[in-house]
Amino acid sequence: MSSETTRKPPSPPQAAEDVAGQMAEVEAAVGAPVAGPAPARRNGWVTGALTVAAVVLVGLNLRAGIASAAPLYHDLETLLGYGTLVASLLPTIPVLCFAFAGAGTAWLVKHTGLERAIGIALLLLTLGLAVRAFESTWLLLAGTVLGMSGLAICNVTMPSFIREHHASRSAAMTATYTVTMSVGATSAAALSVPIAGVLGSPTLGLAAWAIPAALALLVFLPLAIRGSRASGPAGPHVSPWPMLATRKGLLFTSVFAVQSLLVYTLLSWLPHILISRGSNAATAGFMLGLVQAVSIPTVLLLLWMASKPRLLRPAFILTCGCAVAGFTSLLLLPVAFSVIPAVLTGLGLGIFPLLMLMISRSGESAAETTALSTLAQSVGYLVAAAGPFGLGLLQGVLGSWTVPLVILVGVALVQFVLGYRLGGIGRKKVVPAEVQA
To answer: Residues annotated as region Disordered (predicted)?
Structure first.
């Protein structure tokens, strides 16, 4: 993938650069306040190589800890004998960690610096995943909290890291980061069951993903040791909470909450749904991997569409329509045709980068954009936690996924309506604070 930065007509990688460059400003300000674009650092070739390897390895790990667990939940429940409450809590923990990551990450970066914060996050991720090797429900829960907290910190800080170290080739590095994130999730979902079979235990299969996390930590260690403790100035502050009373703030937060609920419910429970209908665990894990694999080219296509104002609303219609069709087919089609909902829901995952692009384009200042991002993510993830937890409990009570899937179809329809309206206001170059949604 070329690292050239010459100006060309919009293409999928450039669209990815636009999103990640602007999204980095949003997320970096949430995790580590930065006033304006950060200059590229003067790195030697060794440090430069380490920063490239860090982007690749952290990207590979960023979703693997979540995707590797879902295909093993059924076997873990059988082995450890925990009930519906714990079964519903496990897939909810990552979403809750994301919801509370902003404030904690800001404090950590302020006191340690960006690289050291990422190093600490990778240490937490490695330890958390490794702890889950033991056949204990409490250690499974504790390890999940510890590991997902580390993952949440990485989720907030890595866009800042790319901007700090690869400003001159952000297109290539952003595309690399996005693709490796999906590759890691695809591999983890497809391979966790076979690995558990080879190791003879689902807990060991779960803990095996501490190895790539440890490799990322090992590569990142020199950067963390040499990293500066200094953090940028906080800059102007805009409180996010009053924005919830505006139509713009309410619309963005609603879309973020709905899409997060759908995505994390799917990632958490798709293998369990398929297994309950007669699929084997390996096939169910493969289908979850297929969902992630389909999302890779989909994201690039949708971001290219979003770079053209007239195609932004069609991009929302496409991805939201695929989500409705995907959850509907998951409800109605036999398990033998599970590849169809896997492909369709994979196409439906494209709404997330579209939403982040919309957030990055909104607001009359960087501070207002940051406030909108903080509002949408903090409130959105808290609401989204009701999906994996509540629908898991409902399935446990009813003994069937039919009613939860009907609810998910309804939520997908709500997302379609909200996405259509959001795509409409996105055609404006500047979205005023009191936009009529």
So the answer is: 1-20
